[in-house]
Automatic annotation (TrEMBL):
<dbReference type="InterPro" id="IPR000407">
    <property type="entry name" value="GDA1_CD39_NTPase"/>
</dbReference>
<dbReference type="Pfam" id="PF01150">
    <property type="entry name" value="GDA1_CD39"/>
</dbReference>
<feature type="active site" description="Proton acceptor">
    <location>
        <position position="170"/>
    </location>
</feature>
<keyword id="KW-0378">Hydrolase</keyword>
<keyword id="KW-0067">ATP-binding</keyword>
<keyword id="KW-0547">Nucleotide-binding</keyword>
<feature type="binding site">
    <location>
        <begin position="199"/>
        <end position="203"/>
    </location>
    <ligand>
        <name>ATP</name>
    </ligand>
</feature>
<protein>
    <recommendedName>
        <fullName>nucleoside diphosphate phosphatase</fullName>
        <ecNumber>3.6.1.6</ecNumber>
    </recommendedName>
</protein>
<dbReference type="GO" id="GO:0005524">
    <property type="term" value="F:ATP binding"/>
</dbReference>
<comment type="similarity">
    <text>Belongs to the GDA1/CD39 NTPase family.</text>
</comment>
<dbReference type="GO" id="GO:0017110">
    <property type="term" value="F:nucleoside diphosphate phosphatase activity"/>
</dbReference>
Amino acid sequence: MDDQHKIKWTLYVALTSLFLFITVSEVRHFTSLRTIFISETHLPLQKYVIVFDGGSTGTRIHVFSFATSLSGHLTLKSEYFEEVKPGLSGYVNNPHEAANSVIQLLEKAKTLVPLDKWSETPVALKATAGLRLLPDTVSNSLLEEVYKAFDNSPFHSSDDCVTILSGEDEGLYAWYTLNFLLGRLNDANHSVASLDLGGGSTQITFSPATLDTLIFSPKDYILLPQVQNRTTTIYTHSYLGLGLMSARHSILQFSTDRSVPLENNGTVTFSSSCIHPHDKTVWKHDLKEYIVMGRKSGKYGFKNCYYKAVEFLGNAVHRPEELMKREIYVLSYYFDRAFDLGIIGKEGGIRTVDEFVNSCKHSCSSKQPKEIFLCLDCTYITALMKHGLGLDGKKELRFAKQIDGIETSWGLGAAFNMLR
């Protein structure tokens, strides 16, 4: 056997072993996801699903309306979306108030779902990074209060309707939502990649089309969920602690002038090269208040902040080379900060990585910043895209908040998963 055949044989054995391992260990509850076709013909012709997104910075309600045909085909008709702040993690000292924030959204749901549909309409809350970062005893007390609110509501609440969503499922559901709305689920090779940046975590998800991605990616990044009643290979990973708010806190620590006392009367002060020298504010994060200010030495700007963002990221983010060849949609805080920079409007748009970076540099050089954290935030996003993910400056990004009036969040993917 010559060297070329040996290499091919080795790759074949490795790939086969990988698929066998994934099949045994990674096909999980996501396999129950139902898509456009629902086999159960007993579903009512009009179906509603209520999904709560318990995020780190806010709690959002999605009320989805579906139409089902007698043959089992499912069509998304509409979505209602609303957000209240703070997120559940903001009520660790008063879990009952966390439930009250949910109850006010449940009252709104009553006006959207017909009375005769209340008892058959499933409701669920999936908490994300904000609660993943809390101790179990604390997060459980918050979730218990929310469950009581659901149990006392007229909607259908199952035993597992209030849970912490895993980072992998968060990425999968967001990818599913995006590709469902774009009509890209029938051919995974033509599906789009999703980069989702939340407050506490960030997710990278796409369906690989090259063997290199399968062979060289960490084994727990490759999953085999059922999509459109077919087993589909998905690359997904969630980085806890690399969400925008968590990263902001860490970069403030990394970039703080150590000559300034870090604590004064119990309040921590950050004097950062990522903040304009003339700016100062009180910032609330994870139930704590911080004094945030710029450095009087004048070491402010994109370059100094970028070095600190890269130092914070290190080599934590895996770089799938295939990502450069895929169509990429960027969601959540990616969209918000691009909008704040003025490079997209409310409808979103297509911009290159370099266009985002140049706009960020311009913002960081402004003598009167639009918003105190904008330079830090956009610099971190730049570091995440370029240093972390290895995206080239010419790579196009599609910024999307909604598609056809539907939020590009993981909520719709979770709603489909509840229709069983």
